[in-house]
């Protein structure tokens, strides 16, 4: 019996030990549905995926935030008051200068921009560890530096100084930022990133299958825009001149710039790429910009309901009136109303620039322009004029190229007889040429006209309105900056912008 | 899994080796009864050992004992009886009522103990008190039964769940659900609102429930023990004549009138809409004419009450249950079978829950040393629900705000298909949505286990068990075009569907060794040691399909577009070693020590393993001479324990930085992209709870009065916390171990036999006080803000020095009553004369969200309590269960739409007393519709209400047919009829329907533990009237 006990115990213990023998593998479980940072960023292909992932955030920003803050906040557009669905009132408050720091869209814009920045930082931090050709490495570096600068340029113009994150956060300990960097420091970084991006991209060759990637031209154009914003006209001219030798040209037909059939054309420098066949990669501007009361008349899509997500970015009367008689751009940019299903004309205007039908219900294929050559010509004209007015000089020619395509008579020095008049003319030309392309708000800001123009716009909007709060549109210099999201104030001890 | 095979072979070999040797043990069965019939819950013990069982609801027991040993029968209120085991296989026992004895067998982690030998704090539930409650899961029955165990049933969803919280909230991010262990198998389950994790066990199959509360009891479950453990054992076979039991009831459920939402009727709503326009014009110095007012609202007098959509979707709903079981066995084999059917129609129309459950429990001796057995328990349930409790557009919530102007049916008696009035949110007729747009869920879940137990030599046993829990579920929703959607009229509504399928497999392989020996007289030791490996894998798939050409075919093949889809795979594994030693010294001292070491796949590379020790001591001070001589003290025991346990509920891959897909388009083609979507944390590990517990068990007057008092102090450190981090880091949150929380409290329970003669009256009362305090949070001790109001602001704050999750919002001071008041008071940027006036907390002269938020309430109760009274006289019995909570507050988040005064929703009746002008200022609390409507519906102090309540949870009156009457049948052993009311009445000042609130998982918080006390529009909790019959044959 005694031996038997011993044998039994030995076997039992043996069984226990057997159970424990492969514990290490037993507890090593990696997720199956996602990769993880331990097994990613290992080869060129994966780095390229990470670069593409950095572009991805542009789609979300483009679908809402870029036009919400770049266009609808300006005097170009407003929204159609929706008395049935008040769920997106904070967007209205952004338009009406009533928005506060805890508004969802303010938080989202910040969040998406920094997600984009983090993705570029992730690539930059790992780029040198992975084996690939120097050309590819330079190209990837250039692409993500451009994207990082693009986000910081948006942030600094909308929020003022912001936390400057130039490396990925690797652990929870380093989650807090060093606080808001001064505006100047942010701009220095943007300039440095864009200069470096342009250099790194100078040898890149983008095949037609990859159209849509950042190019040297895009980096130099954005850099010029930054210099223009900083009123560094010489530096801006230098960059713009380089861009003008890169083979870009105005397309004959203005509307072709927006057509999905003619994506990334000769005039296009950088646009946000969408793909209509993929639900998550498609655009939907046509639906958001249609009057919410228009049923399927505007979109021609009977299967997509226009609820609270429609009726945004509606052109103001002032914008409609800004087009000169005979301007061909007007008809392809906006409509002054629609004829509803019972045959009545409803005078709710809407942006038409992006209406090219749909691929699947709710999904369109149109890209959104960010930088195009017409902008380069107008920026160059503006810079040259700032350096010194020259009657019927190069600056006149640059603007007249654009006016000619629009079917308008050229500017002449006998009408535009001085630097101020020319400045006004370029400002006006930019408004209509680049209408609804998210430039207006920034043009108002950098020309110092925002407070004056927006108060006048507010007075026009409020006149006779029963829906606009009486305290709307009290635009001051302080209110030109968005409030820092309250969440960030709390979590990151950031200083709030004075309101 | 190869080592499993090896283990099996090893064990098999062991079995064969020892097969020939065994002991002279046999199965004894019988029925324990008193003068009025069988007694359930009597503990039956083989004297001098730890082997024991308790009698079933029919009073039957079965135990294996050798000839010559003695069986001890004990029950509260009865004289303990000892019977020697002879040759007879059946021992029926008649117990005398008395005040003697309080010992019963209590199931604990990995074993059982006599109650008198317990060193930790373990609560047990009397089956008699809860047996007649008409609920789908046993967790709902536990309400009010045990001190410190708070059970809340927040919804009346058919088949829906309850939340159990033991000794307060010890965790801020990892959930505070206890661990459920069924027949030794720790289940993966968290309390859900729409699905009850314990619905897989037919309550009728349960033999005993113990709740392990203190760390010395739960430490044996290591990294899963810190929220307490609910240990459930199911009925097992017993040798003897087959005992057939049948229980059934039928009943009706109804929503009580008290607590229903109070919305405007049609006339009032039309008037309200008309006045909004008039007031808006007046505020701009204009006068509204008839042309300015939509025709529907011009003449409110034309409407009467209109439609109360909420009442339209309610009904009186039946509920039925039938269970049958057979328990019996021979000398060497025992069996228990049961079959149960449960059907609950919902009190919201077109919702229901249906369950069939089967359970088999068979064991047999193979020779004299080896016993093997199998448990199989498949359950199949179907549930028809809708999009309840998902947001303000769900069908239930929409029934509150849909236009009361629209009739339910048109002139032809057909349902109005689309409910809309000018300038209002519109939606489908809720009846159509409920009937045709519901979600059908099916769930099969099978629990199975097989074991082999080898008696190696006297006192030493080895048991191997393999357990498996497999479930396969599916859900399907089809939204036909004729129903429509919110702001999507049927004419243009595209039919769509969503499908989900998932299966989960969880297995555990375990070896358990037990040893018991009287080392020397007065020195008794029993010990266990075990090793287990557990692994779970979930596979889930979901598909959304749309562009169906019509409503004819609902399956996905008929759809022309799959706009979104997803797959999820979740796996975790846990490796554990554990041991416990109990040592008793004489009659006075008992010592317990436990330790567990867990390794988990869920934790960071640097912290995969943890060790959880505990120790406890009990001292029978009543055995000391100075107390022994005091006749009115019948028993006195002091307990003390200290231990460490953990909480591992944080999701499976949280420590990793996940790389997810984020594609882009290039050259008109998809360009594959990937990005990091979470932050790596290699330090991530379990949160640890250190708890001491001091207890006192007292019996007075021959144990007619038993009192248990426990005091505890639990410090939870390194809390698993989904910390919000600045977005500039690229991420919104990261799970970290941080902070320190203390829960300390006092629990007091008393059981008394007030009357013990022909008229019997027993009372059990318990009350628990828990205080929750945050001692530390993160490096800078910044508060944690959680929750999300409809306007995107926080609703809760957790900060050092206060309890977890206090309510956080504006302090409402009233409204700007006069121009002077308006001009001289701090304002929000949207404020107007007559709009809501909040306190300028930071004193900067401007009202702003968050900056002007303050703590506005506390969701934690001062104390919770329960009382059960049972009365019996001759053949009648009466049972009353009362539960309550005192001092907790509720944040009624439903106010964010009930108080939406935009005019797009029907609205709470309070608007009838709103400010309209300085001359007509209303009640001073309800603002004008002219402006600042958004901040009026943001979180503020007027949402906070006292949530104290006292509920008569259950009242049951039963009648057992006299034995003399039954004897004639020769078949029926006992018959009892009863009538019962569940949720009879709730006494509370809370304005909502049900003060037992639990936040929804999707309530915007990172973890529900951090957003306590929130109430939305919940599926209403019904009052249930049942009539039942229990029989044994």
TrEMBL record, chain A:
The keyword Isomerase does not apply. Belongs to the SusD family. The keyword Ribosomal protein does not apply. Residues 340-498 form the RagB/SusD domain. Pfam families: SusD-like_3 (PF14322), SusD_RagB (PF07980). This is RagB/SusD family nutrient uptake outer membrane protein. It comes from the Bacteria. It is found in: Cell outer membrane. The lineage of its organism: Bacteria, Pseudomonadati, Bacteroidota, Sphingobacteriia, Sphingobacteriales.
From TrEMBL, chain B:
It is found in: Cell outer membrane. The keyword Transmembrane applies. Its main location: membrane. SUPFAM superfamilies: Carboxypeptidase regulatory domain-like (SSF49464), Porins (SSF56935). It is a multi-pass membrane protein. Residues 115-229 form the TonB-dependent receptor plug domain. Keywords: Cell outer membrane, Membrane, Receptor, TonB box, Transmembrane, Transmembrane beta strand, Transport. Pfam families: CarbopepD_reg_2 (PF13715), Plug (PF07715), TonB_dep_Rec_b-barrel (PF00593). Residues 436-984 form the TonB-dependent receptor-like beta-barrel domain. Belongs to the TonB-dependent receptor family. NCBIfam families: OMP_RagA_SusC, SusC_RagA_signa. This is TonB-dependent receptor. It comes from Olivibacter ginsenosidimutans.
């Amino acid at each position: 019996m005694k031996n038997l006990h011993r044998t039994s115990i030995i076997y039992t213990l043996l069984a226990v030990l057997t159970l424990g023998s492969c514990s290490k593998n037993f507890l090593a479980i990696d997720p199956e549905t996602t990769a993880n940072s331990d097994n990613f960023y290992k080869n060129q292909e994966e780095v390229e995926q990470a670069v593409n992932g950095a572009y991805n955030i542009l789609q979300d920003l483009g679908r809402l935030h870029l036009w919400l803050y770049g266009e609808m906040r300006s005097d170009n557009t407003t929204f159609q008051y929706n008395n049935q669905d008040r769920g997106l009132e904070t967007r209205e408050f952004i338009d009406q200068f009533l928005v506060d720091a805890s508004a969802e869209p303010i938080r989202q814009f910040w969040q998406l921009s920094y997600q984009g920045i983090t993705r570029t930082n992730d690539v930059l931090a790992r780029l040198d560890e992975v084996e690939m050709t120097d050309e590819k490495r330079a190209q990837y570096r250039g692409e993500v530096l451009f994207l990082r600068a693009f986000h910081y340029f948006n942030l600094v113009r909308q929020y003022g100084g912001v936390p400057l994150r130039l490396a990925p956060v690797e652990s929870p300990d380093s989650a807090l930022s060093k606080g808001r960097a001064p505006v100047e420091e942010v701009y220095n970084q943007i300039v440095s990133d864009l200069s470096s991006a342009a250099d790194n991209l100078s040898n890149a060759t983008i095949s037609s299958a990859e159209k849509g990637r950042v190019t040297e031209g895009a980096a130099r154009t954005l850099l010029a825009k930054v210099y223009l914003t900083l009123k560094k006209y010489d530096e801006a001219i230098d960059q713009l001149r380089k861009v003008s030798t890169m083979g870009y040209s105005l397309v004959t037909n203005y509307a072709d710039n927006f057509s999905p059939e003619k994506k990334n054309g000769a005039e296009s420098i950088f646009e946000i790429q969408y793909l209509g066949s993929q639900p998550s990669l498609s655009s939907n501007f046509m639906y958001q910009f249609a009057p919410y009361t228009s049923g399927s008349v505007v979109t021609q899509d009977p299967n997509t309901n226009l609820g609270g997500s429609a009726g945004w970015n509606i052109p103001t009367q002032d914008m409609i009136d800004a087009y000169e008689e005979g301007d061909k751009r007007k008809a392809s940019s906006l409509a002054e109303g629609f004829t509803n299903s019972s045959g009545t004309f409803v005078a709710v205007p809407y942006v038409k620039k992006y209406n090219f039908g749909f691929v699947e219900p709710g999904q369109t294929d149109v890209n959104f322009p960010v930088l195009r050559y017409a902008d380069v010509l107008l920026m160059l004209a503006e810079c040259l004029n700032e350096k010194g007015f020259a009657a019927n000089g190069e600056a006149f020619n640059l603007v007249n190229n654009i006016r000619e395509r629009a079917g308008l008579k050229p500017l002449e020095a006998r009408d535009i007889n001085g630097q101020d008049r020319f400045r006004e003319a370029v400002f006006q030309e930019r408004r209509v040429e680049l209408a609804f392309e998210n430039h207006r708000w920034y043009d108002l800001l950098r020309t110092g006209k925002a407070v004056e123009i927006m108060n006048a716009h507010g007075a026009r909007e409020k006149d006779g309105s029963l829906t606009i709060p009486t305290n709307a549109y009290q635009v001051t210099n302080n209110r030109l900056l968005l409030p820092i999201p309250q969440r960030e104030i709390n979590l990151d001890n950031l200083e709030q912008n004075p309101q | 899994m190869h080592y499993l095979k090896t283990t099996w072979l090893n064990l098999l070999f062991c079995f064969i080796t020892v097969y020939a040797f065994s002991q002279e043990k046999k199965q004894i069965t019988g029925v324990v009864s008193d003068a009025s019939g069988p007694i359930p819950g009597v503990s039956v013990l083989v004297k001098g050992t730890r082997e024991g069982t308790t009698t079933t609801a029919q009073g039957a027991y079965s135990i294996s004992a050798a000839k010559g040993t003695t069986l001890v029968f004990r029950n509260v209120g009865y004289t303990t009886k000892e019977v020697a085991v002879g040759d007879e296989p059946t021992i029926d026992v008649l117990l005398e009522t008395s005040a003697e004895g309080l010992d019963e067998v209590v199931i604990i982690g990995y074993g059982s103990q006599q109650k008198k030998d317990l060193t930790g704090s373990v609560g047990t539930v009397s089956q008699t008190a809860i047996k007649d409650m008409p609920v789908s899961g046993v967790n709902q029955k536990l309400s009010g039964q045990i001190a410190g165990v708070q059970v809340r049933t927040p919804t009346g969803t058919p088949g829906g769940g309850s939340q159990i919280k033991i000794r307060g909230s010890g965790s801020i991010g990892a959930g505070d659900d206890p661990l459920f262990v069924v027949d030794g198998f720790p289940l993966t389950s968290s309390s859900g609102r729409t699905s009850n994790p314990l619905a897989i066990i037919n309550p009728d199959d349960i033999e005993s429930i113990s709740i392990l509360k203190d760390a010395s009891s739960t430490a044996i479950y290591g990294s899963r023990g810190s929220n307490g453990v609910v240990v459930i054992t199911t009925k097992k076979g017993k040798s003897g004549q087959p005992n057939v039991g049948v229980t059934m009831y039928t009943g009706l459920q109804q929503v009580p009138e008290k607590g229903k939402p109070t919305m405007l009727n049609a006339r009032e709503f039309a008037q309200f809409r008309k006045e909004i326009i008039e007031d808006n014009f007046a505020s701009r110095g204009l006068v509204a004419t008839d042309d300015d007012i939509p025709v529907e609202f011009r003449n409110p007098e034309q409407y009467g009450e209109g439609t109360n959509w909420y009442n339209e979707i309610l009904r009186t709903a039946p509920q039925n249950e039938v269970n049958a079981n057979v328990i019996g066995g021979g000398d060497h084999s025992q069996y228990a079978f049961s079959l149960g059917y449960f059907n609950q129609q919902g009190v919201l129309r077109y919702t229901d829950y249906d369950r069939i459950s089967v359970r088999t429990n068979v064991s047999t001796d193979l020779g004299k040393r080896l016993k093997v057995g199998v448990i199989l328990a498949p359950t199949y349930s179907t549930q028809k629900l809708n999009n309840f409790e998902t947001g303000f557009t769900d069908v239930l919530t929409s029934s509150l705000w849909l236009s009361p102007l629209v009739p339910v049916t048109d002139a032809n008696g057909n349902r109005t298909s689309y409910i809309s009035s000018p300038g209002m949110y519109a939606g489908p007729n809720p009846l159509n949505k409920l009937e045709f747009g519901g979600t059908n869920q099916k769930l099969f879940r099978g629990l199975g286990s097989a074991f082999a137990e080898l008696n190696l030599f006297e006192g030493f046993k080895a048991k191997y068990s393999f357990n498996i829990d497999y479930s396969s579920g599916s859900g399907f929703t089809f939204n036909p075009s004729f129903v429509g959607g919110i702001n999507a009229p049927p004419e243009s509504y595209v039919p769509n569907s969503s499908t989900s399928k998932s299966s989960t497999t969880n297995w555990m392989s375990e070896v358990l060794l037990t040893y018991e020996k009287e080392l020397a007289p007065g020195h008794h030791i029993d010990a266990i040691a075990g090793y287990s490996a557990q692994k779970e894998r979930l596979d889930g798939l979901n598909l959304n399909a749309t562009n169906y050409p019509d409503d004819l075919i609902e399956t996905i093949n008929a759809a022309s577009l799959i706009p979104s889809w997803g797959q999820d795979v979740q796996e975790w594994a846990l490796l554990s070693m554990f041991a416990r030693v109990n040592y008793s010294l004489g009659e006075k001292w008992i010592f317990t020590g436990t330790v567990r070491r867990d390794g988990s796949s869920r934790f960071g590379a640097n912290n995969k393993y943890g060790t959880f020790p505990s120790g406890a001591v009990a001292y029978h001070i009543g055995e000391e001479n100075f107390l022994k001589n005091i006749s009115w003290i019948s028993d006195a025991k002091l307990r003390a324990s200290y231990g460490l346990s953990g909480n591992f509920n944080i999701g499976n891959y949280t420590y990793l930085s996940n790389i997810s897909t984020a594609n882009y388009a290039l050259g008109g083609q998809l360009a594959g992209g990937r990005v990091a979507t979470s932050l790596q944390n290699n330090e991530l590990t379990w949160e640890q709870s250190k708890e001491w517990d001091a207890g006192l068990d007292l019996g007075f007057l021959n144990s007619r009065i038993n009192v248990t008092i426990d005091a505890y102090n639990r410090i939870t450190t390194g809390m698993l916390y989904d910390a919000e981090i600045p977005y500039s880091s690229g991420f919104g949150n990261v799970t970290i171990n941080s902070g320190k929380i203390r829960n300390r409290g006092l629990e007091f329970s008393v059981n008394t036999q007030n009357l013990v003669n022909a008229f019997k009256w027993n009372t059990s009362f318990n009350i628990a006080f828990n205080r929750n305090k945050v001692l530390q949070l993160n490096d800078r001790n910044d508060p944690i803000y959680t929750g999300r109001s409809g306007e995107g602001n926080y609703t809760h704050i957790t900060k050092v020095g206060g309890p977890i999750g206090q309510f956080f919002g504006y302090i409402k001071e009233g409204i700007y009553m006069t121009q002077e008041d308006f001009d001289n008071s701090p304002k929000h940027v949207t404020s107007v004369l007559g709009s809501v006036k909040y306190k300028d907390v930071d004193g900067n002269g401007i009202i702003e969200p968050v900056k002007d938020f303050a703590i506005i309430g506390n969701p934690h109760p001062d104390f919770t309590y329960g009382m059960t009274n049972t009365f019996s006289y001759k053949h009648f019995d009466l049972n009353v269960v009362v539960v309550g909570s005192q001092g907790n507050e509720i944040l009624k988040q439903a106010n964010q739409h009930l108080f939406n005064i935009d005019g797009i929703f029907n609205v709470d009746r309070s608007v009838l007393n709103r400010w309209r002008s300085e001359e007509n200022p209303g009640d001073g609390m309800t603002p004008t519709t002219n402006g600042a409507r958004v901040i009026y519906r943001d979180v503020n102090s007027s949402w906070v209400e006292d949530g104290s309540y006292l509920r008569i949870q259950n009242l049951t009156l039963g009648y057992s047919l006299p034995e003399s009457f039954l004897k004639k049948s020769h078949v029926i052993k006992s018959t009892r009829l009863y009538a019962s009311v569940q949720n009879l009445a709730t006494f509370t000042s809370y304005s909502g329907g049900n003060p037992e609130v639990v936040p929804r998982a999707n309530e915007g918080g990172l973890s529900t533990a951090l957003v306590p006390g929130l109430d939305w529009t919940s599926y209403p909790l019904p009052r249930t009237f049942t009539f039942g019959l229990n029989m044994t044959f």
